[in-house]
Amino acid sequence: MIIAIDGPAAAGKGTLARRIAAALGLPYLDTGMLYRAVGRLVLEAGGDPADPVAATAAAKALRAADFARGDLRDAAASKAASQVASIPEVRAALLAFQRQFGNENGAVLDGRDIGTIIFPEADVKLFVTASLEARAGRRHAELCAKGDEVSLEAVREDLAARDEADARRAAAPLVAAADAILFDTTEMDADAAFARALALIEARVQ
């Protein structure tokens, strides 16, 4: 079974996807970490994540260990991820990796273009969203818990900029697949979102 979970940053799709994968006994892949890892590799090499040549080279050299590292959630990695994700050659380089991961044993994958580009024939597609204010509050709390000193307004501005970049990019813009289930988590906590999503999935695949 392939379950595609797409949506903007901090909508809760990562937490949701991990719990669904565990409940259904499926492998899980956070595809956003692939782009964060590519961006981080470019930065470490002294390059510009917006440079197609440098970013594509990093994407082609990506190893599993690169997206398992612990420094891919900071602001620099987030910005770099958004930059490399707008480059068609980077997305093409990572396409085969994502499809192979899902095709081996089935999977729950979360990202921006799983249901539209990576697995358009996925068994179930959820498009997870939430208001910008709710998403900013969640991400701010997450960063503060890690000891990062960042203001709520800075987090909100960063998410708004990422939303715009995701929507406007020519390569796989963030849109809900025509057959995706729209899933708004603004008023839900993690447990409520998980219970509702699992019920929707089970109803769809019966």
Average of pLDDT: 93
* Low-pLDDT windows of residues: none
Q: How many individual β-strands?
A: 5
* Strand composition percent: 5-15%
Number of helices: 9
**What is the CATH homologous superfamily assignment?**
P-loop containing nucleotide triphosphate hydrolases
Structural class: alpha/beta
Tally of domains: 1
Encode the helix/strand succession as letters: EHEHHHHEHEHHEH
Sheet having the most strands: 5 strands, parallel
Strand order of the largest sheet: 2-3-1-4-5
The fold-level CATH name is Rossmann fold
**CATH architectural designation:** 3-Layer(aba) Sandwich
Please tell me about this protein's structure.
The protein starts with a strand and ends with a helix. Strands 2-3-1-4-5 form a 5-stranded parallel beta sheet, with helices on both faces. The longest helix is centred in the middle third of the chain and has 18 residues, at 88-105. 56% of the residues lie in helices and 11% in strands. The protein has helices at 13-24, 32-44, 52-60, 75-85, 88-105, 114-118, 132-145, 152-168, 190-205; strands at 2-6, 28-30, 107-111, 124-129, 181-184. The mean pLDDT is 93. The chain is globular. Helix 2 packs across helix 3. The protein is of the alpha/beta class.
